[in-house]
Amino acid sequence: MTDHYGDDVHALDLLIGHDPDVWVPLPTTWPHDGHRAPRSWIRATVRAVAERSEGATRASRSWLTEVLSALARWSPADERRYLYLPDIATPPSLLRVQYGSARGDRDAALRTMVLESDLAPIEPPVVEVVETDDLGRGLRGVRYAALEGEDGLLATLVYAFRAEPYDVRVSCQVGGPEAVPVMIAKVDLFVDGISVVPAA
Asked: Which residues pair with 189 in a beta bridge?
């Protein structure tokens, strides 16, 4: 599936190809995906995820309904959000795609996008060069942060690209450090499906 987003301010079209059996696109406005309001979208999404899951229970459906209800109320206009949810038993990972006009030195801007965070890292993230067919060369970082009042670490994958004349930042909270090896492959594949083109 490919989602197409236009932005009149930046004269930008963002094309996001994703596997609908793995990623759930979250609403930014209503109507969304043929649904006029959150309630029908939440019901349809819970049903679709439960149907592709083995052993879905009433409790798991109720839990997913609560998660989607909270996410449906949070709809930032300057980003696109997806939930990694291949089945109802998998802890969901929130992926955010942010984009805007390119500014400043490319290398410095990409490093800033990868390193910036609301959560203080426990150490500087490991940053490496990655490349996709459509976005070109960019950076990927793995950042670890300690959550206040909780044991363990939260790992976040962050990608940054300059696809002239635009900058694109993708971040995905993947859970604990043990989830990083598996989720890097999943998020790399998602990022490969993004392209940025000037609006017609």
From this structure: none
Residue 46 banded pLDDT, cuts 50, 70, 90: very high
Q: Are 82 and 24 in contact (CB under 8 A)?
A: yes
CA distance 142 to 136: 19
Residues 6+ apart with CB under 8 A from 19: 1, 189
Percent of the chain with pLDDT over 70: 88
Give dist(CA 101, CA 81) in Å, integer: 19
CA 87-93-49 angle, to 5 degrees, is 25
The candidate with the shortest Cα–Cα distance to 23, out of 128, 97, 94, is 94
Beta carbons of 78 and 98 less than 8 angstroms apart: yes
pLDDT band at 19 (very low <50, low <70, confident <90, very high): very high
